[in-house]
Amino acid sequence: MTRGTFANIRIANKLLNGEVGPKTVHIPTGETLCVFDAASRYKTAGQDTIVLAGAEYGIGYSRDWAAKGPKLLGVKAIIAKSFDRVHRSNLASIGIVPLCFKSGDDVETLGLTGHERYTIHLPSNISEIKPGQDITLTTDTGKSFACTLRLDSKLEVAYYDHGGMLPYIIRSLSNKYALNQ
């Protein structure tokens, strides 16, 4: 599953001048690697990864597959112009933060290359995270811009807090079982 992530022939990787297929650039070294190998290197180095995307991200995929693959590769957030409705929900339920560029903004208008390091300024206290709020992002190149947090319900915020739906359910069941004893 992880090796097939981002293998869709409709995905043009701008880090590779629009080339398609499950390859990417390993930013620190500049090597062209399969996505799985690059992700493994980032994980080993303790570096979180994000995806910068265009419009209707996730449309046309086997949606649950498309959400699980990035999670297994260590993707923490996806920043897109827009999302397929179901895919966005699947990302949220698996613990990946979906963010939308503000109207008129995208990778090109903001001058983003994908080589930047990003800081996503989510509130550290989960009670301060509200569905649909604006979040500020900054890059190591000095750019700052706002995105809309696409955790669209309090339940999706709870999933994020627990690292996804499965850990949320397991903790809920564990708490319920502990209370019944």
From TrEMBL:
Name any Gene Ontology BP term. oxoacid metabolic process
* GO MF term set: 4 iron, 4 sulfur cluster binding; hydro-lyase activity; metal ion binding
Keyword terms:
4Fe-4S, Iron, Iron-sulfur, Lyase, Metal-binding
Co-factor(s): [4Fe-4S] cluster
**Domain of life of the native organism:** Eukaryota
InterPro entries for this protein:
Aconitase/3IPM_dehydase_swvl, Aconitase/IRP2, AconitaseA/IPMdHydase_ssu_swvl
Q: Which Gene3D superfamilies match?
A: Aconitase, domain 4
Q: Which residues form the Aconitase A/isopropylmalate dehydratase small subunit swivel domain?
A: 2-102
What family is this protein classified in?
Belongs to the aconitase/IPM isomerase family.
Q: Which PANTHER family match?
A: ACONITASE/IRON-RESPONSIVE ELEMENT FAMILY MEMBER (PTHR11670)
The name on file for this protein is Aconitate hydratase, cytoplasmic
Its gene name is LOC130500025
